[in-house]
Amino acid sequence: MQKLSLSLHRDCLDCKCTHHNSGDWLWRALFGLGNGQLGWVAGPAVMLLFSFVTYYTSSLLADCYRSGDPISGKRNYTYMDAARANLNGFKAKICGYLQYLNIVGVTIGYTIAASISMVAIKRSNCFHKNRDDSPCQVDSNPYIIFFAIIEILFSQIPDFDQIWWLSIVAAAMSFTYSSIGLSLGIVQVIKVVSLGSASAGTMSEMEKVCRTLQAFGDIAFAYSYSILLIEIQDTIKAPPPSEAKVMKKATLISVLTTTLFYMLCGCMGYASFGDTAPGNLLTCFGFYNPYWLLDIANAAIVVHLVGAYQVYC
Q1: Virtual torsion, Cα 124, 105, 249, 259, nearest 10 deg
Q2: What number of CA atoms fall less than 13 Å from residue 280's CA on the CB side?
Q3: Distances (CA, A) of 37 to 34, 155, 202, 207, 215
Q4: At 195, is the secondary structure helix, strand, or coil?
Q5: H helices present in 63-204, as ranges
Q6: Distance separating alpha carbons of residues 280 and 225, to the nearest angstrom
Q7: For residue 238, which of 77, 65, 72 has the smallest C-alpha distance?
Q8: Residue 136: left if φ>0, alpha if ψ -120 to 50, beta else—which one?
Q9: pLDDT per position as a tens digit, 242-285
Q10: Other CB atoms closer than 10 Å to residue 124's CB: what's the count?
Q11: Do 230 and 76 form a contact (C-beta atoms < 8 A)?
């Protein structure tokens, strides 16, 4: 009975970690569709490379959660605790500077991404009302300020990032907009096949180079994970097995799940639009209709980012 209880507890913790990991990564599944800039061969190859590197480095970091014995050793509750326990003072400081630089970049990226999705909702409704050829220019600054105010208010709630259902909401929102984007991409591919040709697009050599470099950056950012791994692993309270083993299993499931979504979204985007595939199918208006479905997807992105901002930053 005790073994059964421990087994169920481990499964629950593993599920929670997987939700957390997938939720942290999947919101980027529609951002920077690498295949749209790298093509059928290089795009999937780069995604597989980054997924392998992410899993390997995450496994190494998971082993740093405890100092000494992997089951009874001293816990390192944060990334910096792990850095101080395993590195000398100067190297730990370098890790700290890079960590804070990463956090600043994440906060900027989340704020911009959330405002873009809110603007997309406004523009989507405008296109529906005034037809697709309407300019529908929308200033993003008010939405950036609105998002910042929301985050300031939520940051006043004690331990908001520790709320148990937050990772479940994040995973649900992630699968919502990712599934919508993927479904719209599949529909577009069917249309392209029925017409017998895909959009080839025309770009200068400089534009191709810029978009290729952007694709590398987008894919790398999509697999950025170290900033949260130790904190997520700290939610695993009851070995055996050790927290590291549970975390590695959750990481493997998450990497496989998100890579599958990245591949599908990227391939569908490239098959639909060729080299002119937009960076985000939901906000760059690779599609205009059904507008209400786009609104749901972009609203899900905003909800996800509101919570993710608190957890990450």
Answers
A1: 40
A2: 20
A3: 6, 37, 12, 10, 6
A4: helix
A5: 79-86, 89-130, 141-154, 166-195
A6: 21
A7: 72
A8: left
A9: 788 888 888 898 888 888 877 887 777 777 777 666 666 676 65
A10: 25
A11: yes
Burial class (CB in 10 A: 0-12, 13-18, 19+), 262: buried
- Could you count the other beta carbons within 10 Å of the beta carbon of residue 165? 10
Q: What are phi and psi of 281, to 5 degrees?
A: -65, -25
Contacts of 38 (CB under 8 A, 6+ apart): 46, 212, 215
Both ends of the chain: CA-CA distance in Å? Answer: 40
At a CB cut-off of 8 Å and minimum separation 6, what does 99 contact? 79, 80, 83, 227
Contact 240, 71 (CB under 8 A): yes
User: What dihedral angle (degrees, nearest 10) is formed by the CA atoms of 77, 54, 178, 256?
Assistant: -110
For 86, phi then psi, to 5°, come to -115, -10
Q: Please report, for the chain, the start and end positions of each structural domain, with discontinuous segments joined by +.
A: 2-312
The number of angstroms, rounded, from the C-alpha of 297 to the middle of its chain's C-alpha atoms is 15
Our measurement of the distance from residue 91's CA atom to the centroid of its chain's CA atoms, rounded to an integer in Å, reads 28
- Taking the C-alpha atoms of residue 234 and residue 126, their distance in angstroms, rounded to an integer, is 46
pLDDT at 149: 94
CB 225 within 8 A of CB 6: no
DSSP state string for 138-163: --SHHHHHHHHHHHHHHTTSTTGGG-
pLDDT digits (tens, 9 = 90+) for 58-109: 888 888 888 877 777 888 888 888 888 888 888 889 988 988 888 888 888 8
Which residue's structure tokens are 């499964």?
Answer: 11
Both tokens assigned to 110 = 């989340």
Supply the angle between the helices 243-273 and 205-222 in degrees, to the nearest 10: 150
Q: Let me know: does 230 contact 81? Beta carbons within 8 Å.
A: yes
Cα–Cα distances in angstroms (integers) from residue 226 to residues 70, 210, 215, in the given order: 19, 27, 20
